[in-house]
Structures are given as structure tokens and as C-alpha cells.
Amino acid sequence: MGYERQPDFGTPASSSEEQVTLTIDGRPVTVPAGTTVMRAAAEIGTAIPKLCATDSLKQFGSCRLCLVEIDGARGTPASCTTPVAPGMTVHTQTPRLQKLRKGVMELYISDHPLDCLTCAANGDCELQDQAGAVGLRDVRYGYQGANHLGQAKDRSNPYFDFESSKCIVCSRCVRACEEVQGTFALTIQGRGFGSKVSAGTADDDFLSSECVSCGACVQACPTATLSEKSLIEIGTPERSVVTTCAYCGVGCTFRAEMRGEQLVRMVPWKDGKANRGHSCVKGRFAWGYAQHEERITRPMIRASIDQPWQEVSWEQAFAHAASELKRIQAKYGQRSIGGITSSRCTNEETFLVQKLIRAGFGNNNVDTCARVCHSPTGYGLKTTFGTSAGTQDFDSVEHTDVMLVIGANPTDAHPVFGSRMKKRLREGAKLIVIDPRRTDLVRSPHIEAAHHLPLRPGTNVAVLTAMAHVVVTEGLADEAFIRERCDWDEYRDWAEFVSHERNSPETLAPVTLVDPAELRAAARLYATGGNGAIYYGLGVTEHSQGSSTVMAIANLAMATGNIGRPGVGVNPLRGQNNVQGACDMGSFPHELSGYRHISDGATRALFEQDWGVDLDPEPGLRIPNMLDAAVDGSFKAIYIQGEDILQSDPDTRHVSAGLAAMECVIVQDLFLNETANYAHIFLPGSTFLEKDGTFTNAERRIQPVRKVMTPLNGYADWEVTQELARAMGLDWNYAHPGEIMDEIARLTPSFAGVNFRRLDEAGSLQWPVNEAAPQGTPTMHIDGFVRGKGKFVVTDYVPTDEKTGPRFPLLLTTGRILSHYNVGAQTRRTANTAWHPEDRLEIHPVDAEDRGLKDGEWVRLASRSGETTLRALITDRVAPGVVYTTFHHPATQANVVTTDFSDWATNCPEYKVTAVQVTPSNGPTDWQEDYEALSERSRRIAPLEAAE
């Protein structure tokens, strides 16, 4: 599509089902009751002039430009604040209105510098457009904005500038920060011509303020007051392509605005059903990694990891990779090789990798990063409900009365959805947070949790069982729902179990460290407060009892009847952009696409007939098992697409030992990541901007990813996998990812109705999409559970084997921060490092004082597995006895201290509970220094002449 602004209807749409008919400029129009006159006019293509109004914000009525005349009404009311009425007759253009609007616009222009020719917004400025719309050709007043001229631009933010001299004080930026983002970082200071937008700090700059750089203010600004630096440097876009963000599992839709093949800016798409026109700092601004100088664009090989890389042609790389894989299988056996699919790549690319391993390698040694994040979600929800995914769409939160957030930090890890949660909380919904840290959701401007249960890490199951104890023993269970929708006998067994005194909040308090009275109040609120929705993240799954916790969550939702309608449900907040899709596509060693077990003969036959091969009926190795087998000498080669297991997987020493023991490690990625330190073949990857395909977000929403520029490496990732498959002897001839999706739909019941044409028409579809649900399924389990009857599972609390003691008295838990994503490979190569240049260790003031630690000083973090150093951040956000860090920077190597304990059902690692000691330090450990030396040595690339 060519470049043009999305239509702006001025005010938000009304959700009323009642219809009202009126006449505007002699034309009849019918709209929902509650619609404003401005929006009704826009619906029939009549653009009433406006400056303070935009359809992403509530009507405000300050600019006085949108005046209209209404028969029988006095004066000239503002169309943005006047609701329609039956039989109303509106005039949007009369001599009187023309005169009034010109006068208003003259006042705005008199306070605005007229440097339009050199202004960054020239050609894309609403003030400019509206001056033309009202017919202003002459300004009688001298420039009143001279008092602004001495003010410097605020260039503190890495991504946008603020130039107050161009501000018309429409308040759109302030309102966007409040209504859309919910940060309340901006305000209006002063009065009259002296009023201005302020960031509210002593320095009054954006970087030092509470601003989270979501871009809502920039998008709302009708002038060049707030302008992206990229727009200033490159110029106005000439075309745009709608695509899907490649960061977290929210799956925001963006409009990539281009000049030629140069990306100018990413603008959130108002029709995006996951983000509804909002964005975060990562999706909006942190796309510069795609053009970063460290990006590898030519294939490379080397005989051993102590040698420098040699650049080769794609043909040489594919031939060498295929030769090595075949050699190793001939020597060590068919199951001696395997691969890992990427949760950052598209569904189509992930599907091809698992197909290559099953049909080309002849085994099921395939796994994905969901193993180390949300595999317990798949196991737990499939066991209890019958499907391995969340139950609701994101819009469901608008109908929620009580949110229970456990083990998740949405404002940092899923910020756009976090903003939607905060908006609903400001409207009156109640919040329960179960988390060892005081996250921003617990308390921030205009919201506060009704209950915060700061549990001891590792006791999720005990807390949820205690809540269930309250629900059952106080008669708060929804017996009618349970009898109709669930297995009654299993419920009675479960109810008897949770009712035992040993599961009461009081008995479990010494274990959980949660106040029993607070826990009881939280349980009552969830059970009786109306629509209750549970949202959870890696703080639930990354435990030795991760699967048990997911089932305990499902038990609680079923017991209270909070399943099967808008506003309720069990909602896993997925970490990576396509981790849901990677699971859907059959990336686990025991499952084909659609979560069907490899041992099922009928399912296997379907794939064998389509692919023309025999499939191994035995499940393959999981990631930890591959590494174990490598150390043991039976697993010798691995193909890793778009994952950095050395930085992201637990017990770094074990991962490095496994990789070092292999004879052929193939890494396909954008950069020489940490895993590539041990690689023998490097295949350059492509970014989401360079390919077509689909991502599936946390709400099961399948969304188009559209190519906006030519891949710098020459190939999209799916083409790289196809060429490798051809080199292995497979006759693959896909011409476009749409053909791969057709194959997915042919073989996967939940995707049966999905194709690229339908996605283009609908924008997105939520699986299952099939004959029973041709338009997709926003809410699951409406009339009954997918498995039939909901299954209650007894989840006894089993303490983790990881214990604190005199040597390691503290518990370490980990998480993410707003400005970075996962292992930081992308965001560390952008200006996001301005907010988070290093990982810090959060420690409570009492624990810091006991150890003689000061804020900002280096500390040694040691566990039974290993040790690292980083700088301390002393804060009461963590409870005494708990420390916390992020894992975005490889210099920290936080996972060198995590253990190899894992979930009993899925091998998901126990990242969130590690017994540690923290002591003063002088600097990096021997491990860190050795690792840095290895990385430097491993990333040498031989000069091209030498390679040739």
C-alpha cells in the first residue's frame, strides 16, 4: 500500500447497540448512540477541522476548531464533545463557522514558528493541514511565540526530540500518556501563551522523567513538537507496509513507513487487534539492529572453534553443512544429530525446521526455547482443559472485574498489554499480585493492587492450594459450573485434598511467608468479585513444580467458574513473539503440529503420506537431553535456528560443555551470538522486516508478517532451511511462505481454515480456525472444554530440591526489564542501552547492610553451580532474603549460577529459585574473564582475501 495516514475519526467509537439517525450537511447518517457529531461526520467522509481531537483519546474540547451549527441549538457547540441525537440536523460549513475557525486558527499560528519548509513534519503536519482546511491565508497578528525562541530543544531521548516552540498546547501528548500508556509522565505548566508541556522533573527532560518512551505522545502530536530523530534525519516516508512486531508475545501490529528500502519509522496500527494502536519502546523504536554493523550477512565455516571464521558462498556453506551432517550420522547413527527451532522466526520457518529434522534427519530430536519457558503451560493446560494455550483474547481484559497476576511483570515484559491492564484498573477493576517483588502493577500512578502476596520463591503451588482451601471451605466454589462442565468425582477428590488443615493459609504461612489474612482476603476477592481472570508468566512455569502450578491455576479457575466467557480465563503471557507458534508447529520432540503425539499411528500416517517419508515413532531428545548426550558422546551435531542457548539456557557450564563436545554446531542467526562461540558453520539470518510469514501471539492470534525490504543476507530464513534440506537430498520447492502455510493447514486441524488470503482480509485469526469455527476462536471452552469435562488435578506442594543454607542463604530469581528483550541480542544493538546498560542485582537494604554492600558497588553472586559478578542495586522492591537480576547482558552470564533442576513433567529449568550468597567483589570472576577471552577469540573473521 502507498503512504497515507490512517483515517482519524476524531473521537473513539461507541459500543452501544442502539442506533441513531441524524442529518449532516443534508446527508443522512446512522451511527451507534453515544457517537459524537465529529465521528458521525467522519463516517460519511466529512472531515470537520480539529486539533485537540484524535480517535485514540477521549474527547477533550479545547481547541475550538471543530465548531458546528445544529438546528434548534444555541451557539456553535464543539462537535467532538456533542453526542448525536435522533433527528438532529448538523451544518459543518457555514459563513459563521468559517469566520470563527479562521479566527481560532490565526491565534494558533501566531504562536507557532513558520519554518514549514525546513520542518520535520512538513507534509505530515496536522496544523498545516487544518490551516488549509479552514482557508487561512493571512495572519493579522505578529508572532507571539518569541518567548519560546530562547528555549533549546530537548534531545535527551535517544529516539525523539521535543521542541516546545512548536507546541500548540493541545494536550494530546499529555492525554496519551495518561489514557493510553497510563504512565502520567507529562503535564501542562503555566497559563495562556506561557503554558507548555512539561516532563515534570527538575531538569524537565524526557530521559530523566518517568517517560517509558512508548511513543504514544509522539504519535498523538499534531505538529513537529515531538518528532522521531529518524524522521528528522531521513525525511518523510513515501510508502508503508503493515506487519507484526518481532519482540514479545503481545504481537503488536505496526505500519513500517519507508523511503525506498530505508525504514523511517514504525507506527502502531490502530486496527491491530492485539495492540489497538499502542506500542512500547522496543517495537516502536528499537528496530535499528536490522542495519547494525555487527550483523553477519555472509555464510562462514571453520574446522574448529579455535580457528577464525572463513567467509564462503551460500552454495559452499550448504554443501559443507549437509556433508558434515551425513558424515556424522553415518559414523554415530541416525539419532546422533538434531536441531532447535526458533521462537523468533515465523510459523512457516519453524515448521520447515522440524520437518527437516523429522523427514531429513530421520529422527525426532527437535526442541524449541519453549522448553525453557512455557512448556509447563502446554502440559498443564492440555491436561486440565484439553488445549495447550490461553483461553482468551486481549480484549477480554476490558470485561474483567478481578485480575490475578502471578509470576508475571506485564508492564516490563508485555508492556502494551500491561497498559491495557492499567487502564482497566483505573476504570475500577481489582488486582491481586502474587510475586516476590513489588512490581509496577502493585503500585504506580492511579493504580494499586488490592492485595500483594510476596511469596517465597518456589512456593507457588502452596499459595494457590491455600487459596483453593479458602474457596472450598468457605463455600465459594461455583458448584453449578463444576457439575455441568467438570468431572464431579475428580472435583470432590480435589476439594477433599485442598480442604485439609495442612493446606490452610495459616498452616502454610511458614512455607510461603504470606500473611494468612491477606491470602484469605485475596481468595475471597477472586472467587466473589465478578469476572476473574488469571494472568501468569515465567514466574509460574520456570520452577520444578511449573506444570503443577499451571494445573493449580486451572483448578482455581474451574472451581470458581471463571472459564468460557469474556473477562475470565487462564492467560499465559508468552515471552517471545512466536513462542506460541513454535509450539503449535510441532517443535517438541514428542509432538507433531497441533500437539498430536508422534506415537499416534493415524497422525503419523497423515504426515508420512504428505511428506513421502517414514517417520520415527519414538520421541526424540529435549534440549537438556541433547546436551547430556553430547557430553556422553552419543549426540554429535545440532542445527540451531535463531536461539542463543548458551546465554538463555540454565547452568551455562553444562551448556558450553555440551556444545564443545559436538563435532558440528550450525548456528543460523543475525549476529555472532554467544552460542556461535562454539559453532562450526554460521548461516546468516534475516530480520522480520525481510520476510513474509506469520507469527502467533499469546492469545493464539495468527498475524501476517510482511516483507518491507530485501534481506541483507540474500535469503529469508525459510529459504535458508529449504536450501539446506535440498543439500540433504530433499526435494523441496516452496516458492512462497503462503505455500508452507497451506501445508500447515492441510496437516493441522486447528489451522485448517488459515491461509494468506484470509489473513489479508481479516487482519488476523485466532486458532482454532476450522469448519466449527470459520472466523476463529477469541474465547475458548465456551460451551464445554476441548477435552470434554474439565479435569481437576491434585497438586501437592513438593519443595524444590534447591535449598538455602548457611553457605547460600538467599534466593535468586530472574526476570526482564522494559527496555531489553530476552538475551538482548537485538536491543543491545540499539539506543535502548541508554536505560539499561548492564544487568544489576536487586538486593534488600537489610541484606545489603548485613553484607556491607553499597549501591552501585560490584558484588559476587555465587551458587552451588557457579559464580559471577555484577553491580548491586539496593531496593525494597525485593523482600529480605530474595535477590533479583535480569539476564540481558552476556557479560553478566547470570545463568552460570542457575542449576540444572527442572520441572518434573517437562524439563523446564528452575530459573526462578537458586540458592545464592552475595558478597563484596573487586570485579569480574575468572569464569567471566575466561569467557570474554573465548568470545573475542571465537569471533575473529579472516580477511576475505585469505578466505578465497
Automatic annotation (TrEMBL):
Give residue ranges for domain 4Fe-4S ferredoxin-type.
Answer: 156-189, 202-231
- Recorded protein name is Formate dehydrogenase subunit alpha
What would be the name of the gene that encodes this protein?
fdhF
Q: Which source organism does the UniProt entry give?
A: Sphingomonas colocasiae
Cited Pfam families: Fer2_4, Fer4_7, Molybdop_Fe4S4, Molybdopterin, Molydop_binding, NADH-G_4Fe-4S_3
- All copies of the 4Fe-4S Mo/W bis-MGD-type domain together span 238-294
User: Which superkingdom does the taxonomy of this entry point to?
Assistant: Bacteria
Domain 4Fe-4S His(Cys)3-ligated-type as annotated: residue spans: 96-135
InterPro entries noted in UniProt: 2Fe-2S_ferredoxin-like_sf, 2Fe-2S_ferredoxin-type, 4Fe4S_Fe-S-bd, 4Fe4S_Fe_S_CS, Asp_de-COase-like_dom_sf, Formate_Dh-H_N, Formate_DH_asu, MoPterin_dinucl-bd_dom
- The EC number(s) given in the record are 1.17.1.9
UniProt keywords (A-Z) are: 2Fe-2S, 4Fe-4S, Iron, Iron-sulfur, Metal-binding, Oxidoreductase, Repeat
Instruction: Show the GO MF annotations.
Output: formate dehydrogenase (NAD+) activity
Every copy of the 2Fe-2S ferredoxin-type domain together lies at 18-96
Q: Which PANTHER family match?
A: FORMATE DEHYDROGENASE H, RESPIRATORY NITRATE REDUCTASE
What's the family?
Answer: In the C-terminal section; belongs to the prokaryotic molybdopterin-containing oxidoreductase family.
- Record's CDD domains? fer2, MopB_CT_Fdh-Nap-like, MopB_Formate-Dh-H
